[in-house]
Amino acid sequence: MANLSRRGTQHGFSLIEIMVGVVIGMIAVLVIYQVFATSEGIKRNITAAGDAQQNGLLSSFMMGIELANAGNGLAVAAQDLGTCTPAAIAGTTLADVSTSFSNSLLPIPLLVFDGGGDNNPDAVFIYYGVGRTLVSAAPISPPAGVPGPYSDWYVQSANGFKAGDAMVMISQGGNCYSSKADAVGPADASGVVKVTQSRVGALAYDSSWTLLNLGPANLVQKVLYDVAGGSLRSTSLVDPATGAPDNGQPTNPLASNIINMKVQYGIDTVGDGLIHHWVPATAGTAYGDWNPAALLAAPIATINRIKAARIAILVKSEQHDKDLAGQGFTRTVFNDCADGGTCYPVTFNVPAIAAATQPWGWRYRVYETVIPLRNEVWNKEV
After folding, report:
1. Which of 316, 367, 314, 313 is nearest to 49 (CA)?
2. CA-CA distance, 94 to 98, in Å (whole number)?
3. For the chain, which residues make up each domain, given as ranges?
4. Alpha carbons 307 and 309: distance in angstroms, whole number
5. pLDDT in tens, 182-222
6. Are 368 and 308 a contacting pair, CB within 8 Å?
7. What pLDDT, in 10s, does the model give residues 40-96?
8. Closest CA to 85 of 206, 167, 176
9. Cβ neighbourhood burial of 177 (10 Å; 0-12, 13-18, 19+)
């Protein structure tokens, strides 16, 4: 009987113990869920801020590289190019300025188009050549005993020209012509090279004219950078195949979630090659007119006063943040005035929206930097 009693004894958990275990498990699941939800929110915010930071740094880096190169291949020949007749400007829209800048042969390394108001993005035009051998204009040497006009261009330079190079023929009377070298003959005993070109008709030039080589036509940079549709974009203003002005080139997006971009000139008002004031690209500043129409018709002395640019970029995060529902954003940039005087600060303002209308928000980052125009600074006496 004792053996039967021991075999009939029950072992295991009671109902109460099982219910207590279930409750503990549910609490653990709830805690894990809360930790997961919190960590995912933090991860999302960090990722959003990281995306904004990446886009802002990329935009600042790319604009810094381009602005630093502005004027390359033009600065040393600025006095020669400064005699070119300014391109006509038909209006004041971005398209009008783009057309004029594309056709201009003046050595304008940087041109800023003011968007009109702090919350309207500016646009930037940048121009530079990539000549690999010559950095100054070479003298023209017409054939002795052969009267002009001439279809081919004869230049006193045994080196530096080759087929495919973009060139600018410069007179001393305001006439300048851009073309592309179709072929380059060998130098004669006097070092004169015949450059065959087909874009410009016959010219009655003489030995007072000069020829500037901008380097391979497909590498000459005359580019518009602007912000549209939340992206920083670039648009070439020259045909890469011929180097000819062309406003029909495709637009290339460079960085996303760019909300605003503002640019100001750093100008030398004394003549010592240093920056003394910062001005927007508008007329009627305390230090002169710096709007596109004025600069596109400015003499070389005015163009050479531009020594640097400062740029501020407002970037938005890729993902929205529920913790910022309805919130706006305000930040003022360009507060310093260099040598004092009149300042032209800019305030980025993203207005707040009722949380019921916008149940989320975004994180914003502002990047502000100064980029010297190296070629203008190094050649300040030219």
Report:
1. 316
2. 6
3. 49-88+251-378, 138-216
4. 7
5. 999 888 888 899 999 988 999 999 999 999 988 888 888 99
6. no
7. 666 666 666 667 777 778 888 889 999 988 988 888 888 888 889 998 887 889 999
8. 176
9. buried
